[in-house]
Automatic annotation (TrEMBL):
<protein>
    <recommendedName>
        <fullName>Nephrocystin 3-like N-terminal domain-containing protein</fullName>
    </recommendedName>
</protein>
<dbReference type="InterPro" id="IPR027417">
    <property type="entry name" value="P-loop_NTPase"/>
</dbReference>
<dbReference type="InterPro" id="IPR056884">
    <property type="entry name" value="NPHP3-like_N"/>
</dbReference>
<keyword id="KW-0677">Repeat</keyword>
<dbReference type="Pfam" id="PF24883">
    <property type="entry name" value="NPHP3_N"/>
</dbReference>
<feature type="domain" description="Nephrocystin 3-like N-terminal">
    <location>
        <begin position="36"/>
        <end position="138"/>
    </location>
</feature>
Length: 153
């Protein structure tokens, strides 16, 4: 677990110091798109992975930061159980070496996921102990996804 914590890129999280001050959508902007995204995220029947794409400078990061901030603040109480809505984030950036490559993507997300949901920490730690090369950014992404996400979950 300690090794995973060292390798995970803290600067890729939406609320990291490296991302401050992060951009937020101004009131009244991107209203329809934000409603659409939150509608998808609130529906457990729908795919909960949303891929924002477009030309540089149109506001993808601003939208993603706004959604992440709102989802982090939400808690759902059902029969006295609290669910966190934001499992993890990874913001790519050309400014930071480890944030501009996909090699740290799954390692960083699984670290956040296991931190937010401690019930999977042991399974994630076991996967890393069984195959320490999973933490190497040059390990194929499909291998990282399989061993760090699919098997533990």
């Amino acid at each position: 677990w300690a090794r995973l914590a060292q390798v995970a890129v803290k600067g890729a999280q939406y609320n990291s110091c490296e991302c401050q001050p992060h951009p937020k959508c101004l009131d009244g902007t991107w209203v329809d798109l934000l409603k659409y995204i939150h509608k998808l995220l609130d529906n457990p029947e729908k795919n909960q992975l949303i891929w924002l794409h477009g030309m540089a400078g149109i506001g993808k990061s601003t939208i993603a930061f706004t959604v992440a901030e709102k989802m982090r603040g939400l808690k759902v109480t059902e029969e006295m159980n609290v669910e966190k809505q934001l499992a993890g984030t990874f913001f790519f950036s050309r400014k930071h070496t480890k944030c501009c490559t996909a090699g740290y993507f799954f390692v960083t997300l699984v670290y956040q996921l296991a931190t937010n949901f401690p019930s999977i920490q042991q399974d994630v730690s076991r996967a890393v102990c069984n195959n320490p090369t999973l933490l190497d950014p040059d390990t194929p992404l499909c291998d990282q996804m399989e061993a760090l996400f699919l098997q533990p979950l």
